[in-house]
Write a structure and sequence with these properties.
The chain has 274 residues and is of the alpha+beta class. The protein has helices at residues 32-44, 58-63, 98-108, 133-143, 154-163, 208-221, 237-245, and strands at 2-6, 9-14, 19-24, 48-54, 67-76, 80-88, 123-127, 168-173, 176-186, 191-199, 227-233, 249-260, 263-273.
Length: 274
């Protein structure tokens, strides 16, 4: 995966996702960033372009053929709405995942269970640091066949923790790390993406994902972050249920957006204003 900059805007692109992803848009690069993304997609024959766009720049992206797939209110600095926009260069990639969407529709109609059961006494949840990278890698490699970011690279994790100062939290059981999550912070835009939720199969059913989310939220209550969001797998009903029960709002679905666990899957957007 290539992660680099076009001007001051951060992008990633790779053949596994067959996608150009505008991860962090900078106004100084408008409107040239639109053509620059098209040129990369054309050069590598990628089938999708995707980005998080502040509302005031959306018309130009629409004019260039981008579609609005989700909207998060006040995503940028707690004031400007964020549009998750995709442009498709393949009709097959635009096809909806009918069965998965039907299952997800059923989930959205179920009553929300706001109360979180207590964490079992044999588990503890603690912040993680660079000394825990070997354990983090062990969990990631055992759970994810593929992933949209280079989380299997220890240098990437070290940079994320030390330089980007992204928070990581883990659930421990008898001295062993059995689950974790993290957040990718955009402090300039005052938002954070909640991500990398991973629970070992032998420890599922213990509400560890929900408790990790709760601890991650508490971390941001003490920081200058105003909006939390997650890009969650459409196929993972349990993960979507966790965000639903935690009173996050569903904002839309990104069709066939992300290469994860060996396939390009659709992703749901959830958000909460804090």
């Amino acid at each position: 995966m290539g992660i680099n900059f076009i001007g001051k805007s951060k992008i990633s692109h790779d053949k596994e996702n067959s996608r150009v992803y505008l991860m962090s848009f900078h106004p100084d690069d408008f409107p040239n960033i639109i053509d620059a993304m098209d040129q990369i997609a054309e050069a590598y024959n990628y089938t999708k372009l995707f980005g998080k766009i502040p509302a005031r720049f959306v018309p130009a992206f629409l004019q260039a053929g981008h579609l609005t797939e989700a909207i998060v209110p006040r995503l940028f600095n707690g004031s400007e709405d964020g549009f998750f926009m995709g442009k498709y260069r393949s009709t097959e990639r635009l096809l909806p995942e009918t069965k998965a969407l039907k299952d997800f529709q059923s989930l959205l109609l179920k009553p929300v269970k706001v109360s979180l059961p207590p964490l079992e006494p044999s588990y503890t949840i603690e912040p993680l640091n660079v000394t825990h990278i070997p354990q983090i890698l062990e969990i990631f490699t055992s759970i994810f066949e593929t992933y949209p970011l280079p989380i299997f690279d220890s240098h990437f994790l070290e940079e994320s923790i030390l330089e980007d100062k992204n928070p990581y939290y883990g659930a421990w059981h008898k001295g062993k790390l059995v689950a974790l999550c993290s957040a990718e912070c955009n402090r300039e835009a005052q938002n954070a993406e909640l991500t990398d939720f991973a629970v070992l199969d032998s420890h599922k059913g213990k509400n560890l994902g929900a408790h990790l989310l709760h601890r991650l939220e508490n971390h941001f209550f003490k920081n200058d972050i105003k909006t939390l969001f997650s890009i969650s797998r459409l196929h993972s009903i349990p993960m979507n249920r966790i965000f639903q029960n935690a009173e996050y709002h569903y904002a839309g679905t990104l069709t066939r957006n992300t290469q994860i666990c060996g396939a390009i899957e659709s992703m749901n957007i959830w958000y909460k204003l804090i």
